[in-house]
């Protein structure tokens, strides 16, 4: 069915967000408010699903699973590609709703929706085939991957649609059915996408329900859900892991990151400044794999910091619908207050220098000026903790060995990057970083065919690529003796 055109303000007044359960759109549950981070005020209400809706969704997903898994890979791919086409077409219509609830500039919201469609197509086009482990006089061993059953997907608020659609593509392409929960901070655009999905997927294959923490806890503990794919905070990820252990659910956890960039003494400073500034401030710094701290060789530190500060000061910050806006607000008050507390702590450190920003903007909403701070050491909270906001510390280091030790410190290990002109040297440094992805002369690129995930407390398992698809499946070894005679 066609999406509501949220470019028109009156459309929101007449649209009723509804859950998608068993092929039906339901407005069940008491309403809760959804806040516009550009104003700090509630602008819409959303129904909150409860135990009854969860039970109905799991039952629908379980009932739909046998027929869905029986479809060929090509048939499932075709359905997902149809869904991607409809989502891409509806992107300009849904983007204003996404901007309103998440805070990102309108063009970036439209990009998120269109990229969601691209990822669905790419993920559902990856090859999946049995693997012959051996075939010799001892017999043949073939590895066969089969779907798990019902998957529970829990998506975050920073890229509400994109990260949810990654789970949709991977779970459904591999022959599972899905119960998906968006963040209660940003449920509306995902429920608008659910309306698109209703007419494309067979009833029960994809179920999308808005709910709070209690609903998510119910999903992770539910015996009818065979796997949880969770993207969010480390603290919640640990709770998911503990809850899922009761039934030995399969889990994939994509959690926080305190990504470090190492800028070597031979780096192209302008290219590094441009790439790192974009990673630090895009989506208001609210990206798990964004650069969170920069270790720059002392020979290039001052120039690099000055150029990143210039780029931060040049960014136009404002609400999603202001002309030419490049960065919006922090998405919610709790995160806004956390980021400001980290900035205040950093400013109080001996030797700290604020080169750009350093404070909230004097306007309604959760706006923080793009901030660059130097002169800190690793004891500062801004360096030791993940800020998840538009603030970047730049630390001077004497050599790459010191930078590596400091980059590897801490409990997180999602991503990292190395910047320099000598490719072999950069690769050698990258191999010493304790992180799931190490980029060279770039930071934060997420590709459908490349497995993504973290080391240490940044996650468990991998998404994307054939490895990521296999995490939504169970491996079976078929072991056959040679035929007699």
UniProtKB/TrEMBL annotation:
Catalytic residues (positions): 254
The protein, known as: Aldehyde dehydrogenase family protein
Family named by the database record: Belongs to the aldehyde dehydrogenase family.
PANTHER family: ALDEHYDE DEHYDROGENASE-RELATED
Highest taxon listed in the record's lineage: Bacteria
Listed SUPFAM superfamilies: ALDH-like (SSF53720)
TM region(s), chain numbering: none
Keywords: Oxidoreductase
UniProt domain Aldehyde dehydrogenase: residue ranges: 32-478
InterPro entries recorded: Ald_DH/histidinol_DH (IPR016161), Ald_DH_C (IPR016163), Ald_DH_CS_CYS (IPR016160), Ald_DH_CS_GLU (IPR029510), Ald_DH_N (IPR016162), Aldehyde_DH_dom (IPR015590), LUC3-like (IPR044086)
GO terms for MF: oxidoreductase activity, acting on the aldehyde or oxo group of donors, NAD or NADP as acceptor
């Amino acid at each position: 069915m066609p999406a509501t055109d949220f470019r028109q303000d009156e459309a929101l007044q007449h649209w009723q967000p509804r859950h998608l359960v068993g092929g039906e759109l339901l407005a069940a549950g008491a309403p809760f408010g959804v806040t516009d981070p550009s104003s700090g005020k509630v602008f819409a209400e959303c129904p909150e699903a409860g135990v009854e809706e969860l039970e109905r969704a799991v039952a629908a997903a379980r009932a739909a699973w046998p027929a869905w898994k029986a479809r060929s890979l090509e048939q499932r791919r075709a359905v997902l590609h149809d869904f991607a086409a409809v989502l891409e077409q509806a992107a300009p219509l849904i983007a204003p709703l996404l901007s309103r609830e998440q805070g990102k500039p309108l063009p970036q919201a439209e990009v998120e929706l269109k990229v969601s469609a691209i990822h669905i197509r790419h993920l559902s086009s990856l090859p999946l085939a049995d693997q012959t482990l051996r075939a010799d006089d001892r017999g043949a061993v073939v590895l066969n991957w089969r779907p798990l059953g019902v998957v529970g997907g829990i998506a975050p608020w920073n890229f509400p649609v994109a990260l949810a659609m990654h789970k949709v593509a991977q779970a459904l392409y591999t022959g599972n059915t899905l119960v998906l929960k968006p963040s209660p901070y940003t449920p509306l655009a995902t429920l608008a996408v659910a309306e698109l999905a209703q007419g494309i997927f067979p009833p029960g294959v994809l179920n999308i329900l808005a709910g709070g923490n209690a609903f998510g806890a119910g999903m992770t503990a539910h015996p009818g859900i065979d796997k949880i794919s969770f993207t969010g905070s480390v603290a919640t990820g640990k709770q998911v892991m503990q809850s899922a252990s009761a039934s030995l659910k399969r889990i994939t956890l994509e959690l926080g990151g305190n990504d470090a960039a190492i800028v070597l003494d031979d780096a192209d400073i302008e290219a590094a400044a441009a790439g790192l500034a974009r990673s630090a401030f895009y989506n208001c710094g609210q990206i798990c794999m964004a650069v969170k701290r920069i270790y720059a060789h002392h020979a290039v530190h001052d120039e690099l910091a000055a150029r990143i500060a210039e780029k931060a000061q040049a960014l136009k910050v404002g609400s999603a619908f202001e002309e030419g806006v490049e960065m919006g607000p922090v998405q919610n008050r709790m995160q806004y207050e956390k980021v400001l507390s980290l900035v205040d702590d950093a400013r109080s450190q001996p030797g700290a220098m604020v080169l750009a920003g350093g404070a909230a903007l004097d306007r309604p909403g959760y706006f923080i000026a793009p901030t660059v701070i130097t002169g800190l050491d690793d004891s500062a909270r801004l360096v030791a903790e993940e800020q998840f906001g538009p603030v970047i510390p730049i630390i001077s280091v004497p050599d790459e060995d010191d930078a590596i030790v400091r980059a590897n410190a801490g409990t997180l290990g999602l991503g990292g990057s190395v910047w320099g002109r000598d490719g072999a040297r950069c690769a050698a440094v990258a191999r010493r970083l304790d992180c799931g992805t190490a980029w060279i002369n770039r930071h934060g690129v997420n590709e459908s065919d490349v497995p993504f995930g973290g080391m240490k407390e940044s996650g468990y398992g991998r998404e994307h690529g054939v490895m990521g698809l296999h995490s939504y499946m169970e491996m079976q070894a078929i072991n056959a003796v040679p035929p007699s005679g």
